Amino acid sequence: MAAAAAPPPPPSAAPDPTFSATLPENPVGNPIFVRIRLACNNDVPHIHKLIHQMAVFERLTHLFSATEASLSATLFNSLPFQSFTVLILEVSQVPFLQDQHQNNPLYPPVVRIINLDAPINDPEAETFRSGADVVVAGFVLFFPNYSTFLAKPGFYIEDIFVRECYRRKGMGRMLLSAVASQAVKMGYGRVEWCVLDWNMNAIKFYEEMGAEVLQEWRICRLAGEALQAYRD
Amino acid sequence: MAAAAAPPPPPSAAPDPTFSATLPENPVGNPIFVRIRLACNNDVPHIHKLIHQMAVFERLTHLFSATEASLSATLFNSLPFQSFTVLILEVSQVPFLQDQHQNNPLYPPVVRIINLDAPINDPEAETFRSGADVVVAGFVLFFPNYSTFLAKPGFYIEDIFVRECYRRKGMGRMLLSAVASQAVKMGYGRVEWCVLDWNMNAIKFYEEMGAEVLQEWRICRLAGEALQAYRD
């Protein structure tokens, strides 16, 4: 059956999730809408820029070789949470529209209002615009891992990143919580990620989130020429 | 079409891989056939025992809660290399039969002959028997990870284990090489795993294999009650 043009809206008693997070009647400070939603291939240009900003922050741009094409070719090839998965962090001055993101049946977005002390001046708002009133502020990329002792999958977070002007406002906590909540929902056993041992702010933050920092384990990496030596 | 009973063997010029690794005419020392093949659900009882032995070796049995049922429920749910993947290490005094393992189209086994200084006395041979002349000696469990800087998948090795009486004979090297070769074959960017910082023998071995031990990174883990706190 072909879609009819502009049908009248059906009567509905269901609450409109657009307004499930509305501004308080007497807003205090500077409220901002914050959303975490599933990323899709259209987000690749923003994801690419965010990864590059992370490489700059970590002073590791010499290791950065990702392109929009290589990200597109390797992400979004499976159902979310089954393999490499990206959640996008967005901010808006107004409630999020009921678009395909807000109504994604695979992952209903997390929406919160954060009351800021002062409005945020985002010098890159145009670069990271993802909708009429929406700007991308960060992302998290994660994928399943496996514990043989638990005989259960878990999630490993490869990257969690919030753009500089949006930091220290609880958005990183929202991103990490979103992954942890999804792990609990799926009956998974643990969530793991890595931190640089000199990054005391991050370690303090992660410990406050309930994480244990494993002191005795070191990562071994086989890459580049050393890996190519194993070509059959 | 129903399968015909016992058809005559077709004429074939293809080499029989059973004999691609035959004993030398004048064997020196004590040769043993070693095979790495894809694991399947039938291997779960052996995999379970191997994981338990690893927990004993690492003095972490208090963290061990895997059962055969929980392993069966969480492994072998996808194509090999796409998610959690197990390779089994087996030894035999005679060439491996042309069975379903040897002819697995998803992963042609790796077979080598190792010349031992002395015959191996395996006190658990019956417990780990997987065929008339075949005994399970170890395993490796790994799964895809992802590097955002490379925009490429890699492999993360969760466990690599060789039973005590088979150690220091090059079989661990065979297991690690099998994963690295598979990564190269798939165009992946790196292979990673973890090591305890006081396990100098392992660190030396991994460095000889070409791996870099990353000194600055620490693993953060959210598990148990701390993870359950994120229940929505």
From TrEMBL, chains A, B:
<dbReference type="Pfam" id="PF00583">
    <property type="entry name" value="Acetyltransf_1"/>
</dbReference>
<feature type="region of interest" description="Disordered">
    <location>
        <begin position="1"/>
        <end position="20"/>
    </location>
</feature>
<dbReference type="InterPro" id="IPR051016">
    <property type="entry name" value="Diverse_Substrate_AcTransf"/>
</dbReference>
<protein>
    <recommendedName>
        <fullName>N-acetyltransferase domain-containing protein</fullName>
    </recommendedName>
</protein>
<dbReference type="InterPro" id="IPR016181">
    <property type="entry name" value="Acyl_CoA_acyltransferase"/>
</dbReference>
<keyword id="KW-0012">Acyltransferase</keyword>
<dbReference type="InterPro" id="IPR000182">
    <property type="entry name" value="GNAT_dom"/>
</dbReference>
<feature type="compositionally biased region" description="Pro residues">
    <location>
        <begin position="1"/>
        <end position="14"/>
    </location>
</feature>
<dbReference type="GO" id="GO:0008080">
    <property type="term" value="F:N-acetyltransferase activity"/>
</dbReference>
<keyword id="KW-0808">Transferase</keyword>
<feature type="domain" description="N-acetyltransferase">
    <location>
        <begin position="86"/>
        <end position="232"/>
    </location>
</feature>
